[in-house]
């Protein structure tokens, strides 16, 4: 076969893609008919496809390209590390400089006594580590019965069998025999969709107390940990009411339940602090990290754990690890990414400039006839599409049908915005500038106008 390059016609690339490439979370037959969009290059916040179209990437890849595309420093560091030491493992009492430097740096950045890092290749792997780590922790402390991990419906913690079990996406549980035993799910703090007549504050408290009820019902001696994203990302950028997190922290403290904050999206500046746990003012015992750790330039994840957990786990052998745990090239790239985040004060830019600017512009979208609420936190934004703002009604047709139309109108207007059901979400690169936020919101508004016209034409603007 001759070389496959950017210069091939798009149709040929699409044909080869559908013949040989199986895509994640995709109906293969449907995609084969439509043809995948071929992304060829990117710079800053802008992607380019094989047809020469450019898009403002309001999803930062997949929530991960925090420092933006095209940072040559990361390429330089990766090339240098590949020449010096492309790989060595950390299993057999060996280590290397990138793993040492990155774990020390993460211990410095992480709050409280989270001073120890177990590396993985991804967020899913890191959460698999967490399942084994918290169960092993309690077993080593003489409480092997404490093995249940409580999570939330509509949470996303990854797609491996373990992390997919932690997640609360029922359509994922339906395939492959998930969840594994001893994972328990409580309801999410999603006021817009599930709050009924309660105020957000009442609802936040009620949902947090489901954790207490679950612990009481299952037995304190059976529950190992509670895991949650500070802000649910893939579930639709669900920002809990203000009453939620303080109550969760109180309950974890009262029953001595380990708190795992899945910071895979919220970590590394997304919410305007280094970690979402700081924004929500919680004290996790473990934080899951990936995505923004390397700004997506290399696959790497990990678990940052407390002194106490590291002490206990370190008192015996932890029979766990990945060939690529602490991979030297990925670790060197992550370290360079952290240097850029810190030296360029990108988190300060989020907190002081970009997030307030986005919040103001984004809120304005709530005036659109199709939009019921428009909220943001840091550089994550969400809007609920609805046929009736007052009753927060869902659409009469298939859930997600209107969201899908809106996503297609976004593409047509050179904007990448994702839909989760009938909710539209963004999570742009943290380096986005105010004038780029103006472009983002202007394109989103056009897409909403076109969606509104389209669903009226199709008769979809009806409450369920
Ligand atoms: C993406 C994600 C994961 C899984 O990370 P992968 O690198 O895709 O395995 C886990 N938790 C959260 C909150 C995520 O958003």
Task: Produce the secondary structure layout.
Elements: H1 10-20, H2 28-34, E1 39-43, E2 46-49, E3 54-57, H3 60-63, H4 72-84, H5 97-109, E4 114-120, H6 123-140, E5 148-152, H7 161-166, H8 170-173, E6 183-186, H9 191-194, H10 200-218, E7 223-228, H11 244-255, E8 258-262, H12 276-279, E9 286-289, E10 301-306, H13 307-313, H14 328-343, H15 346-363, E11 371-377, E12 380-385, H16 401-412, E13 415-416, E14 418-420, E15 423-426, H17 434-457
Parallel strand pairs: 3-13, 5-6, 5-7, 7-8, 8-9
Antiparallel strand pairs: 1-2, 2-3, 4-10, 9-10, 11-12, 12-15, 14-15
The structure holds pyridoxal-5'-phosphate (PLP).
The site of pyridoxal-5'-phosphate has 17 residues, from helix 6.
Could you walk me through the main structural features you see in this protein, from its secondary elements to its overall organization?
The protein is an alpha/beta fold. The chain has 2 domains: 148 residues, Alpha-Beta Complex (Aspartate Aminotransferase, domain 1), CATH 3.90.1150.10; 271 residues, Type I PLP-dependent aspartate aminotransferase-like (Major domain) (Aspartate Aminotransferase, domain 2). The protein is 41% helix and 16% strand. It has 17 helices and 15 strands. The strands form 3 sheets. The chain has a 7-stranded mixed β-sheet, with helices on both faces. A 4-stranded mixed β-sheet has the order 1-2-3-13. Strands 11-12-15-14 form a 4-stranded antiparallel β-sheet, with helices on one face. It is globular. The protein binds pyridoxal-5'-phosphate (PLP). The site of pyridoxal-5'-phosphate has 17 residues, from helix 6. Pyridoxal-5'-phosphate binds next to helix 6. GO terms for molecular function: pyridoxal phosphate binding; transaminase activity. It comes from Sedimentitalea nanhaiensis. This is Putrescine aminotransferase.
């Amino acid at each position: 076969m001759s070389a496959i390059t950017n210069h091939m016609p798009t149709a040929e690339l699409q044909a080869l893609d559908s013949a040989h490439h199986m895509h994640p979370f995709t109906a293969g037959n449907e995609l084969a008919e439509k043809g995948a969009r071929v992304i060829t290059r990117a710079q800053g916040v802008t992607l380019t496809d094989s047809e020469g179209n450019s898009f403002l990437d309001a999803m930062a890849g997949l929530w991960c390209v925090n420092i933006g595309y095209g940072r040559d420093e990361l390429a330089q560091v990766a090339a240098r590390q590949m020449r010096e030491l492309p790989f060595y493992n950390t299993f057999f009492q060996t280590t290397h400089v990138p793993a040492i430097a990155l774990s020390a740096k993460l211990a410095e950045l992480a709050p409280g006594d989270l001073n120890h890092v177990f590396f993985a290749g991804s967020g899913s792997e890191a959460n698999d580590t967490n399942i084994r780590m918290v169960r092993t922790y309690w077993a080593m402390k003489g409480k092997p019965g404490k093995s249940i991990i409580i999570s939330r419906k509509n949470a996303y913690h990854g797609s491996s069998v373990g992390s997919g079990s932690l997640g609360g996406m029922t359509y994922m549980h339906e395939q492959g025999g998930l969840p594994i035993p001893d994972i328990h799910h409580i309801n999410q703090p999603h006021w817009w969709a599930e709050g009924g007549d309660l105020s957000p504050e009442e609802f936040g408290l009620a949902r947090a107390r489901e954790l207490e009820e679950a612990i009481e019902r299952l037995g304190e001696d059976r529950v190992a940990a509670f895991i949650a994203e500070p802000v649910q990302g893939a579930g639709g950028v669900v920002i809990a009411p203000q009453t939620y997190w303080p109550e969760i922290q109180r309950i974890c403290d009262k029953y001595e339940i380990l708190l795992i904050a899945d910071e895979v999206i919220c970590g590394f500046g997304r919410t305007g602090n280094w970690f979402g746990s700081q924004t929500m003012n919680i004290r996790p015992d473990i934080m899951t990290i990936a995505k923004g750790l390397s700004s997506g330039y290399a696959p790497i994840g990990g678990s940052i754990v407390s002194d106490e957990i590291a002490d206990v786990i370190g008192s015996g052998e932890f029979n766990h690890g990945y060939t690529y745990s602490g991979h030297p090239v990925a670790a060197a790239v992550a370290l360079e990414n952290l240097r850029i985040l810190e030296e360029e004060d990108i988190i300060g830019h989020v907190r002081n400039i970009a997030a307030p600017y986005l919040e103001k512009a984004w809120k304005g979208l709530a005036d659109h006839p199709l939009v019921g609420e428009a909220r943001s936190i840091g550089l994550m934004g969400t809007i609920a599409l609805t046929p009736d703002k007052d009753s927060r009604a869902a659409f009469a047709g298939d859930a997600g049908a209107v969201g899908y139309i809106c996503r297609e109108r976004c593409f047509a207007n050179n904007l990448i915005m994702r839909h989760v059901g009938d909710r539209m979400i963004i999570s742009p690169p943290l380096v986005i500038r105010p004038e780029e936020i103006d472009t983002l919101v202007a394109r989103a508004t056009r897409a909403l106008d076109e969606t509104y016209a389209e669903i009226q034409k199709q008769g979809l603007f009806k409450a369920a």
